[in-house]
Amino acid sequence: MTTVHIKGTAPRSLPRSKDTGVEAAARALQLVLGSLEDSKAEDIVTIDIAGKSALGDYMVVVSGRSNRHVSAIADHLITDLKDEGLGFPRVEGLETGDWVLIDTGDIIVHVFRPEIREFYNIEKMWQAPDMEDGRLH
């Protein structure tokens, strides 16, 4: 729910979407993956971070072939998200095109040039085994 404050009136809530949180995140993920495929993004990796982090439900990591390709992938995704009514994501790094981070709320997308992706290797950090009751699973 989004709360809207209008001067001189009581706050009221407007629904964001008909979908529940889980359904909305899954729908947004399908849109993100489709947009990335349309843009010819490479090495697309989806990581389910629901329950592991308060950052969101999914993290998607992809590569572009060059700075221009990284920026084009990000621009296309941002446009697709806005066109589908999924809001205005927070974006960092679009100017340089080395690493663009797009945060939709439910999904965090990292678009890298291959060398930058290899250097930071953020997928590895999220691929740690799950811990439950002090035991590895």
Instruction: Indicate the proportion of strand residues.
Output: 25-35%
- What class, by secondary structure content? alpha+beta
Q: Number of helix segments?
A: 4
Any idea what the shape is?
A: globular
The poorly predicted ranges are 1-19
Strand order of the largest sheet: 3-4-7-6-5
Mean pLDDT equals 82
Strand element count: 9
In whole angstroms, how far apart are the ends? Answer: 35 Å
Oligomer: single chain
Proportion of residues in helical segments: 25-40%
Give the biggest beta sheet.
Answer: 5 strands, mixed
Radius of gyration: 17 Å
User: What's the helix-strand series?
Assistant: EEHEEHEEEHHEE
Describe what this molecule looks like in 3D.
With 137 residues, this protein is α+β, with helices and mostly antiparallel strands. It has helices at residues 21-38, 67-83, 114-120, 122-126; strands at residues 2-4, 12-14, 42-48, 58-63, 90-92, 99-103, 107-112, 131-132, 135-136. The protein has a 5-stranded mixed sheet with strand order 3-4-7-6-5. It has a two-stranded antiparallel ribbon with strand order 1-2. Strands 8-9 form a two-stranded antiparallel sheet. A hairpin with a 3-residue loop joins strand 6 and strand 7. Helix 1 crosses helix 2 (67-83). It is globular and about 35 Å long. The protein starts with a strand and ends with a strand.
